Amino acid sequence: MTDYEAVPYAGLPIATAHPWRLAWTSFVHGGPRPDLSRARVLELGCGDGATALAIAAWEPSWTVHGVDASPRAIADAQRARVPNATFECADLASAAVAPGAWDVVIAHGLYSWIDADRRAALRRLIRRALSPGGLAYVSFNALPAWAVRGRVRDALVRRAGDDAKALLERLDALTPPNLWGGLLGHELKRARGARDDYFAHEYLAGHNDAFWVGDFARDAEADGLRWIGDAQFDLPEGQPCEGIKAALAVDGMRGEELADLAGYRQFRCAVLALEPRGRPAADREILDAAFVSGVASPAREAFLLDAGVEETMTCAGGLELRVDTALSKAALVELARIHPDGLRMAELVPRARALLAARRVSEGPDDERTLAEGVLRVWRAGGLQMRLHKPRVSAEGSAACAFSRYEASLRSMLSTPLGVTLSLSPADLAAVAGSPSVADPVLRSTLGRWGLLS
Known about the structure:
Layout: H1 19-29, E1 40-44, H2 50-58, E2 63-68, H3 71-78, E3 85-89, E4 102-107, H4 116-129, E5 130-142, H5 146-158, H6 164-174, H7 179-192, H8 196-203, E6 210-211, H9 213-222, E7 226-230, H10 239-248, H11 252-263, E8 267-273, H12 283-289, E9 291-293, E10 297-298, E11 311-314, E12 320-323, H13 326-338, H14 345-358, H15 367-380, E13 385-387, H16 402-410, E14 413-415, E15 421-423, H17 426-434, H18 441-449
Helix pairs in contact: 6-7, 10-11, 13-14, 13-15, 16-17
C-alpha cells in the first residue's frame, strides 16, 4: 500500500476537467449553462495543483481553490504563486468549503481511490459546494472493462513483498497466444511501462475500485447530483463509445453501460449538476455557438479547390475525408491555417468564400448546407474539435510565459489558454524552462500559436 507522502505523485493538467470542457459537455447534453466570466472553481483532491494552477494561470479573472490532504502536495502547489489560486491542506471532512459558492467543482483521480464512506462524503460535499447552475466533474475507473486491469492490480497487491514490475515482466513472457493472452498482455505491458509514481498509486494503493456508470449515477442522484454527460464524449477516448451508443439506440444508463462494454471504456469523466438536464442542443444551436478547430491535411500537393474535384484529406486520429465541394475544401484549408485557433460558422463561411474568390473558384448552390452537415459529421467522428470559448492568444513576443516556464520545469506537457494541453519533446521542455527567451524559431512559432509567449 502507498500514500502520497511516501510516494509523491507528479500531476499533469487534466484537460477533460477544465471548466470550459464541462460547460461544452453540459451545453451539448442539455444541462445548465453556467456563466464562466468570473468563475469560482474548487478542486477536491488537487494534489500538487497541476490542474488547478493550469486553470487559474490562463483565466486571471477566475477564483480557483484547491484542497488536498497531503501537506507535501499542497506545499508543491503553493510554490507556483499564481495570484488567483489558493490551496488548503485538509481532508474531505475538515475542508473549509463555503456552501453554494462554487460554479465548478472538480474531483479527478479521487473517487475510485477512497473507501465507500469517503465517496459518500465527497458526493455530499460537492452537492453542498455547488452554486445553482454549477457543474461538477468526477472521474472514476469504469466497469466492466476495468475488471481486467483490476485483476492485475489485485494480483500485485496480494503479492506485496515481490518486485511488482519484475513479476509483470515474467507474467508477460508467459501469456498464451490466444485472445486472453492478447488482452492480458496489453494490460501487463501498460503496467510495466507506467511511471513509478503512477504505478504505485494505480496498482498498489490500498483502495482502487471501479464502478458501473449506472451505479455511479444512482449514488450521485441519491445525494442530489444529476448526471449530465461524460466530458470525453467527443474526444478520442469517448467518441467510439458514443458511436456505439447511437447505433444501439438504447436510452439512459442502460445504453451507457452497453456502450462501455462494447467500447472497452475503462475510465469515466462524469459531468454532474444540481438540476436535471433538459433537451439536448439542436444541430443548429451547436453550429451557432461553437468555435470549430482542427487540421485536415491534403493527401497530395496539387490540391484543388474546384467544385466536383474530389480531394482526400486526413484529420486528427487518421480519419480520412473525401471532399468535392469547393466551400468545404476552402473551410478546411482555413481551419488548418489558423489552428489551434477556431472559428464560429458565421466567421468560417465568409473566410472560406474569400479564399475561393481569391483563387477564382465558384461554389455550388448547396455548398453552405453541405459544409454545415459535414462539420457536424466530422466532429462526431472525432476529426474536428468544438468548444464554447475563444481565448485571447497572442503569437507576438520572443519569451515563453512565466507559467509555461514553471510547468516546463516540472511536467511532461504544458497547459494552454485553450483549455487543452500541448506535448513537447524533452529538449523543447528544457529549452522553455531554461531561459525566458526562446531562440529556436520553430519552437517559438509553436508556443506563439498556442498563446504561450509574452
